[in-house]
Amino acid sequence: MRDLHASQIKVAVEAVKARKEVNEVYFVACGGSQAVLMAGQYMFDKESSIPSHVYTANEFVYDTPKRLNENSVVISCSHSGNTPETVEATKLARSKGALTICLSNLEGSPLWEAAEYPVHYDWGKEVSDSDKNKGILYGLLFSLLSVLAPDAKWDVCLKELEKLTDLSAQAKAQYDAQAKAWAKRNKREKTIYTIGSGINYGEVYSTAMCWFMEMQWINSGCIHSGEYFHGPFEVTDYDVPFMLVKSIGHTRHLDERVENFAKKFTEDLLVLDQKDLDLSTVADEAKPYVAAILTGVVIRHFVEAIAFERGHSLDVRRYMWQMQY
Ligand SMILES: O=P(O)(O)OC[C@H]1O[C@](O)(CO)[C@@H](O)[C@@H]1O
């Protein structure tokens, strides 16, 4: 992690440490940025006794949680730093006395100015994943947990993030041929569903909402593995494509149950099994977290392959940023 990012995280964490009490953590953003933050709620729920919540920014603004006060920590995120809902939500949180931390790719943006403790992340093809949004978010989360739910493992996890540069290059190379073949096979599909659980749910959520619907205009829906058998499995058929992330974490059983059923009825089930990632150099404590970040890298590789096959740039929008809404 770059020194700049590490020092911004340190300042934010020191401020949290200085608070008399922290009894609620809110993760607030829109779209892909909200999906990234979902891992935060997962970690706080599973690793601390502090309640945490994910909010789409405008609900936070228009239907504000009653418990938001000076004992709350609000972590917001906006890649552009310009999404008005997220800026408004951060201003509101600050006005209520909450400690506000934001993540953004743009220093000096409206969000950057709105939060008390801004943290920058890098973006781009040549940039290490340890300094991109998820690397920085996980770095922040591990550092916050080391204060709010102390455990020696957080320092270990923090160090393991440094391995992301090599691990993500390795993961892309490992899945390259499969991604291209899958993209060729699926390029004319009108609908692709995504399924996952646990810490990976945010990743499959953003794959459906942002990668497929927003950036490829492919109909999609994101299904939690635990919910597949409570409705969505009725659409399973030989020609219905699914992308399933199979976790190495505690929810693996849920994902396996989906796989075992779905493969009997569809010929188009893509299973991204985190057990296939080479995590031999990663400390056990950090494996599910590193795997979650790498799964995002792998999914992006599949999405770039399908965008290429379809001749549909990931940058094209019909409505978003093209008009008032
Ligand atoms: O606040 P951000 O991260 O700049 O996001 C704005 C937009 O970018 C996306 O995350 C991806 O294009 C959208 O879902 C969202 O509306």
From TrEMBL:
Keywords: Hydrolase. One of its GO terms (biological process) is fructose 6-phosphate metabolic process. Residues 12-150 form the SIS domain. SUPFAM superfamilies: SIS domain. Transmembrane segments: none annotated. Pfam families: SIS. Its EC number is 3.5.-.-. InterPro entries: FrlB_SIS, Fructosamine_deglycase_FrlB, GlmS/FrlB_SIS, SIS_dom, SIS_dom_sf. It comes from the Bacteria. GO terms for molecular function: carbohydrate derivative binding; glutamine-fructose-6-phosphate transaminase (isomerizing) activity; hydrolase activity. PANTHER family: FRUCTOSELYSINE 6-PHOSPHATE DEGLYCASE, GLUCOSAMINE--FRUCTOSE-6-PHOSPHATE AMINOTRANSFERASE, ISOMERIZING. This is Fructosamine deglycase FrlB. It comes from Blautia wexlerae. The gene is frlB.
